[in-house]
Amino acid sequence: MGIKKVGAKPQTLVEKIFFLDFIKGLKTTIKHLWKKVITVDFPYEVVTPPPRFRGVHGLRTVDGTENPEFDSWVKRLKIKPPEPGETRCIACKFCQAACPVPELFDIQSEKLDVPEGHPHYGLKVMTVFNMDLSKCTFCGLCTQACPTDCIIMTDIYDLSSYTRRSWVLDKDMLTQIANDFVARRGKEKFDEKSQWREDQKLWPEYDRTREKLWDFNMPKLGLNYHDQTA
Ligand code: SF4
Ligand code: SF4
């Protein structure tokens, strides 16, 4: 197999004498010299991302703004009805099921140790909720799968760390992050009933363009598709 060597185009004599390449480069620099700077000098300058930004996760707590199905999910999963300020997580693991890297989650629940006849007998609480964000792709699918709007993504993007261990966030840390985010920017992210605002959803209802593109490109025949022309 022959190898074709590709090198830089040799300069002409005129280009060499008059430094034409240098002048071209300088022209580009001067052209951009007076334009508005769009980069920031991180970490000395920081930007505030839009509320739809998919940054570090958080776990929301019960604050009276849960969706209408919240109580029925709590009953269905046999979870102790949470008090205000306690986590909305019902340990259903839908977030983990939706995640392309499910092993980054460690979600566990335990039955309450109460005697028979106690109102909470036979009910569970979520006990462990760890997320290893070093494996996260920040796709946001977990937030869309959560039936209680518990898991959210915030505007925190600085994940730099000296240890891998610090990327594993537990339920207390995730709860603190969500509480802080909701207090700071909740109004931008959620409506007056604290439900997701339409423009903050990962797949907003009005975003039909992508759906149409997919319809258009859907294969008619293939190993994994039925013959739709039949
Ligand atoms: S953002 Fe995506 S990759 Fe990260 S935890 Fe959620 S579903 Fe998994
Ligand atoms: S989907 Fe929501 S409620 Fe279910 S385990 Fe995940 S965070 Fe908890």
Automatic annotation (TrEMBL):
Cofactor note: Binds 2 [4Fe-4S] clusters per subunit.
Cofactor(s) of this protein: [4Fe-4S] cluster
Cellular component GO terms, alphabetical: plasma membrane
The enzyme's E.C. designation: 7.1.1.-
Binding site for [4Fe-4S] cluster 2: C99, C136, C139, C142
Chain positions recorded as [4Fe-4S] cluster 1 binding sites: C89, C92, C95, C146
Gene3D superfamilies, A to Z: 3.30.70.3270
Assigned keywords, A-Z: 4Fe-4S, Cell inner membrane, Cell membrane, Iron, Iron-sulfur, Membrane, Metal-binding, NAD, Oxidoreductase, Quinone, Repeat, Translocase, Ubiquinone
Catalytic activity line of the entry: a quinone + NADH + 5 H(+)(in) = a quinol + NAD(+) + 4 H(+)(out)
Membrane topology annotation: Peripheral membrane protein
Subcellular location: Cell inner membrane
Ranges for domain 4Fe-4S ferredoxin-type: 80-110, 127-156
UniProt cross-references to InterPro entries, sorted A to Z: 4Fe4S_Fe-S-bd (IPR017896), 4Fe4S_Fe_S_CS (IPR017900), NADH_quinone_OxRdtase_chainI (IPR010226)
Function: NDH-1 shuttles electrons from NADH, via FMN and iron-sulfur (Fe-S) centers, to quinones in the respiratory chain. The immediate electron acceptor for the enzyme in this species is believed to be ubiquinone. Couples the redox reaction to proton translocation (for every two electrons transferred, four hydrogen ions are translocated across the cytoplasmic membrane), and thus conserves the redox energy in a proton gradient.
Assembly notes: NDH-1 is composed of 14 different subunits. Subunits NuoA, H, J, K, L, M, N constitute the membrane sector of the complex.
Protein name: NADH-quinone oxidoreductase subunit I
Organism of origin: Sulfurihydrogenibium azorense (strain DSM 15241 / OCM 825 / Az-Fu1)
Organism placement in taxonomy: Bacteria, Pseudomonadati, Aquificota, Aquificia, Aquificales
